[in-house]
Amino acid sequence: MLIGGSEVRGTEGVLRAWNPTAGTDMEPDFAAGGQVEVNRACLLAQEAFDSYRETPLETRAQFLRAVGQGILDLGDRLVDRACAETGLPRGRIEGERGRTVAQLNLFASVVCEGRWICATLDSPQPDRKPLPRPDLRLRKIALGPVAVFGASNFPLAFSVAGGDSAAAFAAGCPVVVKAHPSHLGISELVARVIQKAVADCGLHEGVFSLLVGQGNAIGRDLVQHPAIKAVGFTGSRLGGFSLMRIAAERPEPIPVYAEMSSINPILLFPSALAKNAETLAKGFVDSVTLGVGQFCTNPGIVFGVESEAFQRFRRAAAQELSTRSAGTMLSPQIHSAYQRGLERLEATPDVHTLARIDATREGCLGAPALFSSTAKQLLAEPECADEVFGPSSILVGCETADEMRMVLEQMPGQLTASLLLDQQDLEMAGALLPLLERKVGRIVFNGFPTGVEVSHAMVHGGPFPATSDSRTTSVGASAIERFMRPVSYQNMPKALMPASLQDENPLKLWRVRDGKLEQR
Amino acid sequence: MLIGGSEVRGTEGVLRAWNPTAGTDMEPDFAAGGQVEVNRACLLAQEAFDSYRETPLETRAQFLRAVGQGILDLGDRLVDRACAETGLPRGRIEGERGRTVAQLNLFASVVCEGRWICATLDSPQPDRKPLPRPDLRLRKIALGPVAVFGASNFPLAFSVAGGDSAAAFAAGCPVVVKAHPSHLGISELVARVIQKAVADCGLHEGVFSLLVGQGNAIGRDLVQHPAIKAVGFTGSRLGGFSLMRIAAERPEPIPVYAEMSSINPILLFPSALAKNAETLAKGFVDSVTLGVGQFCTNPGIVFGVESEAFQRFRRAAAQELSTRSAGTMLSPQIHSAYQRGLERLEATPDVHTLARIDATREGCLGAPALFSSTAKQLLAEPECADEVFGPSSILVGCETADEMRMVLEQMPGQLTASLLLDQQDLEMAGALLPLLERKVGRIVFNGFPTGVEVSHAMVHGGPFPATSDSRTTSVGASAIERFMRPVSYQNMPKALMPASLQDENPLKLWRVRDGKLEQR
Questions:
Q1: What is the pLDDT of residues B372-388, one digit of tens each?
Q2: Who's near B249: CB < 8 A, 6+ residues apart?
Q3: Full-model pTM
Q4: Which of A314, A387, B143, B383 would staple B229 via disulfide (CB 3.0–4.6 Å)?
Q5: Does the domain formed by A2-10+27-260+471-483 have CATH 3.30.420.10?
Q6: A173 a catalytic residue
């Protein structure tokens, strides 16, 4: 473990990473920590908080960029270890590395721009009757130390230096990461890069720590620690619910940003379908099988109004899927959960298997599968639309557009919805749009949900149970907002004023003065 | 009750308002509702949501202004009833009415300005390698129907058409208010104004309903209703905790914005104290006794370093307080809770009574009281700083500045902290500032915390347990943010685009385009 500037070996047993391709565990041993190490890391983070949140914006940006550069400088060591620990192909890991670095650099530029500070100034009115109006100035400050839990499916982009950490660092929050047990080696490599960047930038060592531990106990201790003021998590619904409960039951409840599960419905509209059933089917199967289906945005369900064209889509998708092969999944746990999910669907009356690849080899191979059902069945048994994490999807035939609306209205919150449509479908799509806005965080037109852009206008989030808090996003520039809270200063003496609120606006921020946005 | 456009009489018994000055109940009978009425109001709100959140901004602003004008048009009917139901003096009610109307008008202008939509556009990059970048556009939309619980101490400004309702309406959320049982008449008068404004502006009737009910059951049913997507509450810690728990245990947990309790520490700095002990003492006693101490921002605790000057402050404050008289409190419940709070303090060893007014008359009279204690005692027994809602405060002597820091560090979250200082105290104050920023939502310099400005830079909020969610404010323009969530649109056809995201920017909004703020 890395706790502040130190290397610490825990005394709670030993963990090893697993190579899902080879089916073997991997050197070296990682000594697991417990409550003692959690406490040490959290107290250090608390100690670091006041100074870190007031570092000049340029220093903070430099820190984020240094982490990005350090990750690139790890070169093949990181890529090799990531491939071994995840079974993901080299190209995917390199792509994810690029995205992780781009994310850090995006936040570096967001930090310097400073709009997230929300600097707001109300001029005093000393002569107002019956009472004078005071001078009021508002800025947002960081929430406090943040606990981050990495995702199994993104060893870099949603992990030690992933989106949650980058946003929290940008906001001015120290971060304590609990390493994903499948990514021990990658986590250590990246953590050392952060540890070095903290030192190089002259920051308090408590700005970052990495914890390694067995089972759920260390995560629970971390979320329960009084120094922790928010939690970032990407993972299963079970894990997310459990963290939400722990956080809500603390003497001081704290926000949990858990991204949990989503089946990312695809809506096929009649005219587009009639013209392009086969092309759409191919694109759909590409999206389902991408990365062995291990994306939070994997399209697990497709809705169409029953028609000859929907029949063609079903046939084409089944045929296309039959040409694909099984791929190594991230871990034995994920693989067996996937198998169980397929078995559950196969055992459900009125759910039919359209296509399924045989996975002849034992081990972690996830084989693509396609099912078919009806809106009626889904209305009667909504749980058969529960996420099956992996390369599987279910095609749902609706008798009418009204039935499609009914089944969508019943659907729980999702990260995305995708609409495949053309000019003739616009009216029908427009009528569904308000419903979809209520249900999801991102609406994709004529495309598939996999592929999450890291930019200013991205929302990777959505209503419960897709996430625990629909008010923010875990990807994109506005993720910084989740780690901020407003503070107002009344009649503050000039000598005490933070730079962001001084009359002269030395940081050249965009600010709201007496209700008007200005930059002077 | 008013449910949508209808008048409804419940069948769950009868309630009457109470006149705390006269000590009698008041005409007329209000018929209490139950689950049936909750369900009807919530389903109507749900039905209204999609259309209301897309009303043109100008219509929504007009609606808010119509409510404000309607409240003014009620004239003396409203003021008389409010005085009777609360025991508050006429001037205070008229002032609060002005503030409530100003609040509605502020949100009307905020709505039209549209910065809260956070319109954000990322240009497509069709030629980017390895993958093209899509067109992405983000806007914030309303969360959904909001349940609002009025406060006992602000029959207008934190009630039926108070801050939470105004912010929710501004954001595009229908509102279901549970009337405060002490404000039945005022609630009905204001609710009829809203009901009429809804009709006059051509809005869906479900945009607003007012429920009346016995005990906690109707509130619980309201918060548990699946159509409700957020809760606004101002009241006791017990009430707030209970709503937080109910909301967290729903199948779909929802955000609760509960403003609960605060003792609003005042910090006396040595140099200012030495020069102005007597003047400061008078200002302090004014603030403690204002409105019979029934403000969330009432200063319930004062810290100073022991000195001859602090002795003078103590004496002057005790003497000043002895000249004040008891006042009618809002309700018998609040009065008896205040009495119990005083008895608790009097029974605490090492807490001394400095001054206490006798309340000879029976009934709802709250008598000012002043206590004294030490930092040591507070460190040993933090619960003696629990809020005593009413005109009471406790003066805490610290042996050193370090001890003051220690006792502040132990203090739970507060709405405000006030610093009384001069030039010579700046260094000491500056050193405490980071701690105070972590603890409170508003920091007041050389003033007292009572008096909450309704403006852009106000924060009326703070870390738990002052509120349930430190990330927002319940007063001021940015309260609108608490009822919003972001949605992103990928490659959206022009024909479906909401006005806020269209290329031509027909609403002339400030928008972020490719990371830069612009208004074109």
A1: 999 999 999 988 888 99
A2: none
A3: 0.97
A4: B143
A5: no
A6: no
